[in-house]
From TrEMBL:
Binding of Fe cation, residues: 220-221
Keyword entries, A-Z: Iron, Metal-binding, Signal
A Gene Ontology cellular-component term: outer membrane-bounded periplasmic space
Species of the source: Thalassospira lohafexi
Descriptive protein name: Iron ABC transporter substrate-binding protein
Leader peptide range in chain numbering: 1-24
Family under the similarity heading: Belongs to the bacterial solute-binding protein 1 family.
Record GO terms (molecular function): metal ion binding
Pfam families: SBP_bac_6 (PF13343)
Source species, domain of life: Bacteria
Keyword Heme: no
Amino acid sequence: MDIGKLVSAAVFGVTVMAATAASAQEVNVYSLRQAFLVEPLFEKFTEQTGVKVNVIFAEKGLVERIKQEGVNSPADVLMTVDISRIQQAVDAGVTETLTNDVLATNIPAHLRDPEGHWFALTQRGRAIYASKDRVAEGEITSYEDLADPKWEGRICTRSGAHVYNVALFASMIAVHGEEKAKTWLEGLKSNLARKPQGNDRAQVKAIKEGECDLAIGNTYYYGKMLENEEQRPWAEAVNIVFPNQDGRGMSMNISGMSLIKGAPNQENAVKLMEFLSDDVAQKIYAEVNYEYPVKSGVEWAENVKSWGTFKADTVSLAEIARLTPAAIKMVDEIGYNE
């Protein structure tokens, strides 16, 4: 997308939203999630409630925008991805605490902030991708296995400082403590086939091209690759492995939402948040982006079902957020990206 157009659209959106911020039939959303993911949800919400949803989409900078707008901000709800990015909004002081029975019923405790600053919308697992040709089924079963010397020169990952990997590393600290987690990360680094680079899909491409045999990536990318004609061969070259099924389960991350402090349309904001946590929206969201619902009992998308069921790690995401600085420090200390 043209950045100039994006900025212009955002500025225009803020102007319009500011002028109508207190409208009884509107709610204003700042979203770091892409339009195609959330617009179907907002359309259904408006259809059911009559409340119009105004949205500003951006890849970054929305928390800073809310801070700059201050008490005049029209923002009611912030939607973003990854627990560390969500926590950044909390740390910036732009979120409001919310106690709500509907959200507490629909969203498990480990997937929402104990103080009500944020609530998960969807889940994605941090899976292991393994070459169908060069890694036998059952040969790797856990994150811990990634540090086994047998995989020396056979693993590809994106930057260790990326939020997706940082959350995984934080989960290892939660399970093993800092010392053992650091030893594990050093083992993983020693097994890398190349300097960390690219995104999650680039690692699977590298497996297809024979550069490595294992990679770490979010589960939903498997579906994304299968629907893309160019990338389908990459996905077809790997098995998706759900790690630690005999123990804590696969490490999970989230997309989430927060109520903005001083939201001018707080009542409608809460209505939207309740809607997003309930059956209809949960099913739409999961189907559009191959993610897993947070509400129990909501059916998975058919193609996601075909990948198999799994045990998910239920460590509190608030604990992962707390351990994120330690994980980042650990990445730097061992020179993971060097």
